[in-house]
Amino acid sequence: MDDITQLAAELGRRLQLLNAHVTTAESCTGGGIAEAITRIPGSSAWFEAGYVTYSNRQKTQQLDVPAGLFETVGAVSREVVEAMAQGAQEKSLARFAVAVSGVAGPDGGSPHKPVGTVWLAWGVGEVVISERRFFPGNRDEVRRQTVKAALEGLLQYASAEISNQG
């Protein structure tokens, strides 16, 4: 079992302990996080929905990301991924969410947002936590590292919820 599948399986175990569901809102990973989660037998017990919103229009239509954000801060930004996570939670009613938007390459980068720049946001109930990461490598490597980081974050926040209940 590869490391991503192991992370997804452990996430499932922890979400089941919490009787909680997760949703994904993905751009640069194109559904890769949801695919990793649904590799796990029985994931329908804890995976609610996956939104692949590659275009800005779909981020707005499917997840209610304010259209004005794209002109002011760009799609690869804290504000957009936080809105994506919140929108996915509101639409799916899942307790946990992860959202990602980034520049996977090989082109599309800029001096402020070079190829490998990714914003991630995790929704945990009413709280949204976000961070900017830089992942080196080619397109596939950037996407894989993003999927792994997204799952690691979900696992961390689910584990914290378990500890808080204990």
From TrEMBL:
NCBIfam families membership: PncC_domain (TIGR00199)
SUPFAM superfamilies: CinA-like (SSF142433)
A Pfam entry, by short name: CinA
Residues annotated as domain CinA C-terminal: 5-157
The organism's place on the tree of life at top rank: Bacteria
Protein known as: CinA family protein
Source organism: Pseudomonas citrulli
Transmembrane feature ranges: none
